Amino acid sequence: MGTSPTHPSLPGLGQRGGTALLRLLADAVPVLLAYYEVPGLRCVFANQRYAQYSGMAVDALIGKTVRDAVGERAWQQILPYVERALQGETVQYTREHVQDDGEARMMEITLMPHFDRDGDGQPHMVGAFVLINDITHHWAAERAVRQSEERMRKFAEATEEGIVFHREGIILDGNEALQRLTGYPLDELVGHPIIDFVEPAHHEAVREYVQHGREDPYELAIRHKDGHTIQIEAVGKTMPQAGGAYRVVVARDITARKQAQARADFLAGHDTLTQLPNRRSLMQQLARTLADAQHWRRRAAVLFIDLDHFKTVNESLGHEAGDQLLCEMARRLQGSVEAGDFVARVGGDQFVAVLPDIRNRTAAATLADTLLERVRAVYAIDGTPLSLSPSIGISVFPEDGYAPDELLRRADAAMHRAKESGRGTRQFYAPGMEGQPTEILQLEHQLREAVFQEAFVLHYQPQVEVSSGRLVGFEALVRWQHPQRGLIGPDEFIPVAESRGLITPIGRWVLREACRQVKAWHDEGLPRVPVAVNLSPLEFRQRDVAAEIAAVLHATGLEPRYLEIEITESALMWHTDQTRETLQALQHLGVGVAVDDFGTGYSSLAYLKRYPLDKLKIDRSFLTEAPANGDDVAIVTAIVQLAHSLQLQPVAEGVETAEQIDLLRRLGCGLAQGFGISQPMDAERTRAWLQALA
């Protein structure tokens, strides 16, 4: 075995390949490499990296023992591994090495025995290779992961929020808080799909959240082991890992928050003393009631109830007794009405009952008499018997008004008339009870001011293709921006406008504004769809409609094909020659014409073939009970078939449910609009809606 310090040869290897090539290869590899002979354990070969690791030059290292090369302290540490290697075992271990500059490096050392054969062919150990890899980077990364996991473990134990780890929806681990939250021990959670513990109504939301790797908070409900439901807020985070990413989910019990929110919502709409709905809830309910009554062509009634001489109770027995009396009053009122009726406290000792479906005025009077009798029954407040009587005012839809505040105001006026008539009785509203002429004059004055100020806004309701949901147009709907009452719908002011000669300037404004707005959207590059504008029968008869429309289209630059005029059946029944000429002129312009609320007007259908029309709009009243009501389905079917036969496009109004859309699709009704598709939107929201389609 050669021992030249500059050109060493390894025992058993000879000079094959040349020591120069060996040196070149050894210095090129990224590991620290050395060879020690046995039995003396003296270095006979080392590459540059190993020499630098030992803190000396290669020439100086050759011939030194392992003990000399590494120092006494390190020698004592590695001696057990060296002894194992001398026994012929390949040994691998790690140790920390501190460099001269103080930086600590983690090294992985492999001791590999080298054998040669003697003259008898028997192997005997002649030396050992030393291979050292610098694994500091991997060691630091693993240590960071361990530290992170340790921090996570400590946090998971300390927090009251449930923490669950899962991969692709299968639970891997969880903390103690999760076990308390669900009622399940950890061994009953691990290995199970996370969705098994979620209420079925939220399964789809959980799947979507996991599949898309979302990391935003969302709410869902889980099922406790004992069966009760828990509302939680969950937020997930994807954690990368060498073996595959996993998800950590933090679950927070929000039951108390939900209960507090529900209580706050309840208090916002209810009276804190009697727990009855308050005035705010009353007006919302009354608006829904009147809308339903109008659709179903039925009557509704409002009863305004005021306790007579209630102030005397407060002054003589105290406010606590008065509060008890009001609560008892609320119980008696609720116990006297039908299940579908609505009772509210609107302030002080005043209550309102809404009867959503009455056959006639006699039915309202009968209920009012029942209330009078039950409220008059003796009360016992802290042992003191009391007997009070109410005064009740009644207004009836549609005879006494169409708007919620109008009916409430007139029921209030009737109640005051009942008090003036001796108290303890009921009165129906009658014209003159609230100074109606003054009210009408005031409304007319405000409406004229609104016309002068152009205090109107347009809302736009989308019209879509039933088969695909594709947007095909909008209907422009006017609203009055009242200075005190806010937005007022057309049903409240259009009749006054027609009777006071104000419908023409309002109609002109609507036409001009709708065309201007749609042209502006087109200029922005938004989807080009037409807008439909309603014309009242008075407007259609009294104006040169075609000429005005042509002038507006020219002024706004809107192409005629993007404008549609909607007229009712009644507008087509007057002055047929003039009507035909007007419609032909609109057709010549390229403006579409639709018959609005079809099926609610004249029974004669001759005008459908006499006039140039484009669409038939099926009145919403025929869809209210469809598809459950067979008669309504039959009517809708007939209208759709009639439209197809006359080469007209049927349009369904008032669509609210998926079942109605499915029905229309089966019947071949091409277009639809309604709250089930979209409520009317102001210009800004409509623009955003269009931008989402662009």
Share in helix: 40-55%
Structural class given helices, strands, pairing? alpha+beta
Number of strands: 26
What's the total helix number? 24
Q: Report the span from N to C terminus.
A: 84 Å
Shape: elongated
Q: Summarize the main sheet.
A: 8 strands, mixed, barrel
Query: What do the pLDDT scores average to?
Result: 85
Q: What strand order characterises the main sheet?
A: 18-19-21-22-23-24-25-26
Could you tell me the radius of gyration in angstroms? Answer: 44 Å
Strand fraction: 15-25%
Low-confidence region ranges: 1-8, 10-17
Describe the structure.
By secondary structure, this protein is α+β, with helices and mostly antiparallel strands. It is 43% helix and 25% strand. The protein has 24 helices and 26 strands. The strands form 5 sheets. Strands 18-19-21-22-23-24-25-26 form an 8-stranded mixed barrel, surrounded by 4 helices. It is elongated and about 135 Å long. The relative contact order is 0.04. The N terminus is likely disordered.
Summarize the entry for a quick read.
43% of the residues lie in helices and 25% in strands.
List the helices and strands and how they pair.
Blueprint: H1 19-28, E1 32-37, E2 43-46, H2 48-54, H3 58-61, H4 66-70, H5 72-86, E3 91-98, E4 104-117, E5 123-134, H6 136-158, E6 162-167, E7 170-174, H7 176-182, H8 203-211, E8 218-223, E9 229-239, E10 246-253, H9 255-269, H10 279-296, E11 299-307, H11 310-317, H12 319-336, E12 342-347, E13 350-358, H13 361-376, E14 379-381, E15 384-386, E16 390-397, H14 404-420, E17 426-428, H15 436-453, E18 456-465, E19 471-482, E20 486-488, H16 490-499, H17 503-523, E21 531-534, H18 537-542, H19 545-556, E22 563-568, H20 576-589, E23 592-598, H21 606-610, E24 615-618, H22 630-645, E25 649-652, H23 658-667, E26 671-672, H24 683-693
Parallel strand pairs: 16-17, 19-21, 21-22, 22-23, 23-24, 24-25, 25-26
Antiparallel strand pairs: 1-2, 1-5, 3-4, 4-5, 6-7, 6-10, 8-9, 9-10, 11-13, 11-16, 12-13, 14-15, 18-19, 18-26, 19-20
